[in-house]
Design brief:
Keywords: Dioxygenase, Iron, Metal-binding, Oxidoreductase. One of its GO terms (molecular function) is dioxygenase activity. It holds the Pfam family PhyH. With 319 residues, this protein is α+β, with helices and mostly antiparallel strands. The protein has helices at residues 18-27, 41-56, 111-117, 120-130, 215-231, 293-296; strands at 29-32, 68-69, 101-104, 137-147, 154-157, 165-166, 170-176, 188-191, 243-245, 253-257, 262-264, 273-282, 286-287, 314-316. It has a single domain (14-310), classed as Sandwich (Jelly Rolls). The protein is built from six helices and 14 strands.
Amino acid sequence: MLAANAVTVKPIGAALSCADVEQFQNDGFLLHPESIFDGDTELSLKRIHAGLEAILNGEYETGIPPSNANALPADLPRDGRLSFDDAAPVLRPGAKPRTTIHLINAWRCNTTIAQLVTSPQLGVVVGRLMGWEKEGCRVAQDQVWIKPPSSGPLSFHRDTPYLDFVPKQVCTFWIPFDDISVPNVGALEYCRGSHRWLDGRRGSARQFYKPDYTALLRIAAQDEERVRSRSSCSSAPPVDVEVVNTHGCAGCCSFHNSNTWHGSGPNATNGWRRGIGIHYIRGDATFGEDCGKLWQQFRHADGTTVLPDVFFPRVALPS
């Protein structure tokens, strides 16, 4: 019998075709515009919304806080609490847009969110798309991105530079908890084929909230053009910067290669745009020797590079 706060995922991996895998490999992402929830999607979303709201108000069902969290926009909590049901105050003309709310490892705070993040059904899809059937896969972390009404964009970036594991391969699953077919809601955008571009880190966390959210993408495209020109005997064609918007109902999803450039525009609506990105790594991945501060807290005291299962749960076992 399922718990009162349970959410379950459909076996979407069973419907994954060879054409889907090929499209993922060619484009660097794969869209699934239908709800992934098994059963009542509206009820599943209501439970997740409640879980997120509790975390934002400092209420951790498991007693464990998120690994990282930024400050809430000062004008949103009322009487010390944030509620998704409260209408956000209208910003005065010329006011700075609200900052996106960001949480890391919400799955460790709340069992409902943990059921989604650690779903073996998602692990099956990731293993198939990435070719990890022999190694299996595990969760590296989740990242909750909540765009309040009248909030700014998130800059285009790649995930790989921020995830300090060996091998560096990462697959990201993203699911919005609100309807992203609404115009100007700030849904995720992908640059098709950009996972094949020149490797390299672009920007820092401070640049995630810059108003010109495609600036780093344009720089990356220019760098890619220069690389192609140097390696070609003749003039290389311009790099095709084709940006694809995700779309679909609340509960739809997408998967992308960690090297795919992606970002999102501002939420210019009076509603919320809530969602979560889950980063998956190969089942046999280890810590990199120079892993950053975020990851150091999860290492064994003896300094071994082996990943502890308690912090990096396995969601698909090796075949």
